[in-house]
Amino acid sequence: MYINLPSNNHYRRPASYASKGYHSRRMAVDFAVPLITNVKNAKLLAEALVRKLPLDVSNVDAKSSHLTHTFPGLINIGAFVPGLSVPGSQDLITSTAANLSGGFNTVIFSPVGVNGGIVDRQSLEQARSNVSGHGHCSYAFTICATAANVGLMDDELQAEVKALFVPTSTPLSVIASHFSAWSSEKVILTDAKGSALASILLLASLHGRTVHVSDVRTLEDLLLISLSKAKHLKVTCDVSVYSLFFTAEQFPGVQVLPTAEVQKVLWQQLDVIDAFSVGANPYLLASTLGKPASVCSGVEETLPLLLTAVSEQKLTLDDVRRRMYDNPMKIFSISDQHVTSIEVVIGRRVKYNVHPSCWSPVLQVSGETHRVVVHGQTAFLDGSLFSIQNGRDISGSVIAHAVPATTNKDDHATLPPIMSLVAQPGTPHDQYDLASHVLHIQPHPAFHRRHILSVKQFSQKDIYDLFAIANEMRFQVEKNGGVDILKGKVLCTIFYEPSTRTSSSFDAAMKRCGGQVVQIAAETSSVQKGETLEDTIRTLACYGDAVVIRHPAVGSAQEAAKCSPIPVINAGDGIGEHPTQALLDVYTIRSELGTVNGRTITLLGDLKNGRTVHSLVSLLCLYSVRLNFVAPSLLAMPSNVVSAARKAGIPVTICESLDEVLADTDVLYVTRVQKERFQSEAEWLLVKDAYRINHAVLSRAKEDMIVMHPLPRVNGEFERVCLKSFI
Ligand code: ASP
Question: Is the pLDDT of residue 484 over 90?
Answer without folding.
Answer: no
